[in-house]
Amino acid sequence: MDETAEANQESGAAKLQERLQKRHQARIEDAERRKEAKESQSVAEEKGEYFSSTFSRERASIEELLSGCSGADRAAVTQKLEEATAKTVQLQKFLNDSMLFLTQYELRQAQAALQKLQTSLTETREEALPKKKFAFRARTKATDKASAPDLPAPDAGPPSEPGSTLVDGASEQCGFTNRTDERLTKTAEEIQKRDVLLTHLTNCQVRLLGSPSTLHLKHIDGCEILCGPVSSSVFVDHCRNSTLAFPCQQLRTHNTSDTRVYLHVTSRAIIEDCRGVSFAPFSWSYPTLEEDFAVSGLDRERNNWREVDDFNWLAAGTPSPNWTVIPEADRKTSWDS
After folding, report:
1. Which of 157, 234, 287, 323 has its CA 20 to 30 A from that of 145?
2. Residues 238, 221: contact at Cβ < 8 Å?
3. Are 113 and 189 in the same domain?
4. By the 8 A CB rule, do 211 and 292 touch?
5. How far is CA 194 from CA 21, 61, 188, 197, in A?
6. 124 and 177 share a domain?
7. Burial level of 175, CB count in 10 A (0-12/13-18/19+)?
């Protein structure tokens, strides 16, 4: 009995010691987890602070360049706009690279600020470097004298190259405007790295080959618009009953209804004041698509086509009723017609 009791006592002491060691080890592991969580939070906060300060500094630099265009001569304005454009593209890339550690609020604030910058850039360019319309006319002294009192307005008649203008030999924004029931095409040579504007189009089929810098769609009705990789942003405003397809860094869509978007986007799509907008992955293809992706600098492997932020829908955890995903069976796969 004594030996058995002693053995039981030793066994109990060993088990107690084992439990104490396990408890001690659990405390150590818990302390390590807490330490790692605290360090991780600290790193995230540091990254957030770095992003905020860097973004604000670069944003202020761009705004200063744009404000400096007022009253400057054409050469200075052109230089400032080129620098502002390059800085805006870099700021967009910086935002895309920082998305993983930003909160949704921080991301939305930065995207809204960036869109405001891009809008200011476009408006400053249009104001400081107004487009000059031109036409070639065969003139004689007789026709000059006869027609002098009734010269046609600059917009009269179709331009020699619709949607494109030249200002002092430099290329400006290109695109199409005020067209109905037409098939419209721009080649890579025409749009490469330029701002493209499509406005007031009705029942048109548009093909934009190449890689634009930005794409602006305004007052589009019943159109099919397909575009190659856009190196920065696409802005859609007042579009209805249309089908759109493009890759881009950022998409901002306003006042749009009953429109299908086949999208490749490396950040997140944003909609505001929209209804009946549906999304599917970008599926249009043409012979030089891969080359244009390389020109655009977009990440071919990153596509957040179904990550859509609706600025009019703030109910967390409940899907927005203003947009949907196009079912696979209903997605368009042939774009030749």
Report:
1. 157
2. no
3. no
4. yes
5. 69, 22, 10, 10
6. no
7. buried
